[in-house]
Structures are given as structure tokens and as C-alpha cells.
Specification:
This protein has 317 residues and is an alpha+beta fold. The protein is built from ten helices and 17 strands. The protein starts with a strand and ends in a 13-residue tail after the last strand.
């Protein structure tokens, strides 16, 4: 069921965190002032300072705003989503892409550029969206253990030296895989049954766009609010590099390259009390075990007024 959103009556706040991604925060701020602000009851733009707590910022803004726009990469979107999903009376969320891959914005079909996303905000409807949950932490795209957190660390080092370019993300991936030394010992508990694995990489997906972009199955499971867990068969560097190349070519396959487990919720434990975990492009150390589930319809998000598939909204074909 479609929920309407009256922008003319809305108190709007925009969190701008584009300095390290695509685009320019000052330029976007001016665009929003020119194009969006005149259409709102009130408008405020907040530029994120280095080291600022985005979750706290969004939580504070939620108290007296009807719409909070997250302009930035997937990490920014996840922080705002966390604040709103945890709020007792959450505002509606708007999304403006400004990162490297922007999977959440692409999942929502709001547009792949800030200009397109502003057009969406000007003519939008509200859609309820489910999010992933790891020990109370919201994730929008994926949770990864093993090699991927190390990839993120190396990628950020490359970005600091040469700027944020997508090719550097792929180069960081290859270099990190070549340096891989030790497999991950992992126990997955699904429906009360324990399964043990030795693997170089495990990840839980939440973004159908990300899965489809790599030719991986289970996008339909994500649409049904189920979590797919991918566990790489490779334990060492060279086999994982081969799997990564097949992934880049869209030729990665279950059985040969990975094992797939799908469930509404599961528990992942490891051979260490804490692990570096990658979540929506960020990296942090998290205590084990990881309890993963879906927060169904946790967010109200602005999406294009007309659905990408008109038949899905009951329009004539």
C-alpha cells in the first residue's frame, strides 16, 4: 500500500557527508537550497564534520524533523538508518547517493546521481523498507568477515593517497587477497543446527542490487526478507583470487566457489572472541557471536512516486 508524503508540510533536514565520496557538499547544499527548500515547510542543511557521530546527529535531528535526507555513501546511509530504525517516532528517510557504489540508493531506485535523487525527493511516495540487524546494529548492504575487512583497510589507504576511484577499490581487493595468510574458523547456527567451516571469506547480503551486479543468486530471497549467507570454499589466497576473478566476470557459482545458507536469522561464531567485521563499507571490531536477523519494515523511505514496475503498484500494463 502506498503512503503519500506532503513535502509542503514537512520540516526537512539534510545531512551532507560528500567530502570523501563523489560530488561536492557545498555544491549539493546549494542545489538543495535552490530546488528543495522552497518546496518544504522548513529546511536545514547540516554538513558533517570530521569525526562527527552520524548516528547521534541523525537521532538529534529526528526529534523535530519529518524528513531526514542522508547525502553520502552507504556508510552514511546506514548511520542515518540506524538512528531512524531505533527511534520511537522515526522521521521519513530521504537518500542522495554520494559514495563509491551506492547500493542502497540503487536498491531504492532513487537515482544514481545527486541531481536524479533530488528529482525523486520532489515527487516521491513513502515505502517501508526492511534492514539487516547484527547484534542491534543496522546494515543495509552486507556484513563480511575474513578477508573483506582487510580489503576495506587497504582501500581506505589507497583512497587517502590517490582519491576515491572505483578502480582503486578493485585493486585493493586483489592486493589484499594476494596477502591473505590465515583462514577463518567459523560456526554457523541455523534453525538450531551447527555447521562448521574453514574459509577465507564469509558474508551476509542484504542488497539485491549488489547480488545482481555480481551475478550471485539469492536476490529474490532478500526481497522476501530473508538473509543469504555466502561462505567461500577457498581457504587460501590463490583459490580466493580465482573466485574473485570469476565473481568480477559474473561466473561465480554455488558448489564450486561458495556455499549458500538462507534463513530468517542465524548466529555466526568464530575462533576468536572479537573479529574485524565489515558493514556497509565501514570496518569495526565486533564481539562474537554475531546474531543476524531482519528488522522488517523498519524504515520509511522516499522512493519515486511511480514504481519502476507499474504492475507492482496495480497500474495497467
Amino acid at each position: 500500500m502506498t503512503e503519500t508524503f506532503d513535502l509542503a508540510r514537512a520540516r526537512v533536514a539534510a545531512i551532507l557527508n560528500l567530502k570523501s565520496g563523489r560530488g561536492n557538499g557545498d555544491g549539493l547544499g546549494q542545489q538543495l537550497q535552490d530546488r528543495l527548500a522552497p518546496r518544504c515547510a522548513s529546511f536545514r542543511a547540516v554538513r558533517v564534520e570530521k569525526g562527527q557521530d552520524l548516528i547521534r546527529l541523525a537521532t538529534d535531528l529526528n526529534t523535530d524533523h519529518d524528513l531526514i535526507i542522508a547525502a553520502g555513501g552507504d556508510g552514511t546511509q546506514a548511520a542515518v538508518a540506524q538512528a531512524l530504525a531505533d527511534a520511537e517516532l522515526p522521521a521519513v528517510m530521504g537518500v542522495i547517493p554520494g559514495g563509491t557504489f551506492n547500493y542502497f540508493a540503487r536498491d531504492l531506485n532513487v537515482g544514481e546521481t545527486p541531481d536524479e535523487a533530488i528529482e525523486t525527493l520532489l515527487n516521491a511516495r513513502v515505502e517501508r523498507v526492511s534492514v539487516g540487524d547484527m547484534n542491534g546494529k543496522v546494515f543495509l548492504n552486507n556484513i563480511s568477515l575474513g578477508a573483506y575487512p582487510e580489503i576495506l583497510e587497504r582501500r581506505e589507504n589507497f583512497y587517502k593517497r590517490w582519491g576515491r576511484r572505483r578502480v582503486l577499490a578493485y585493486w585493493a581487493t586483489l592486493r589484499s587477497l594476494m596477502d591473505l595468510r590465515h583462514p577463518l574458523l567459523l560456526t554457523a547456527t541455523v534453525d538450531g543446527e551447527e555447521r562448521r567451516f574453514r574459509t577465507a571469506l564469509a558474508f551476509v547480503a542484504q542488497s539485491e542490487t549488489q547480488l545482481e551486479s555480481f551475478g550471485l543468486e539469492a536476490a529474490d530471497e532478500v526481497r522476501r526478507d530473508r538473509l543469504p549467507l555466502f561462505i567461500a570454499k577457498a581457504e587460501r589466497a590463490l583459490p580466493l583470487v580465482g573466485a574473485a576473478l570469476r565473481l568480477a566476470l559474473g561466473r561465480m557459482s554455488r558448489g564450486e566457489d561458495f556455499e549458500l545458507i538462507v534463513s530468517d536469522h542465524f548466529i555466526i561464531d568464530t575462533d576468536r572472541p572479537t573479529r574485524h567485521v565489515a558493514h556497509d563499507g565501514e570496518r569495526s571490531r565486533v564481539p562474537a557471536p554475531l546474531k543476524l536477523s531482519i528488522r522488517k519494515d523498519a524504515l520509511r523511505v522516499l522512493v519515486p512516486a511511480r514504481a519502476a514496475n507499474p504492475a507492482a503498484e496495480g497500474d495497467p500494463a
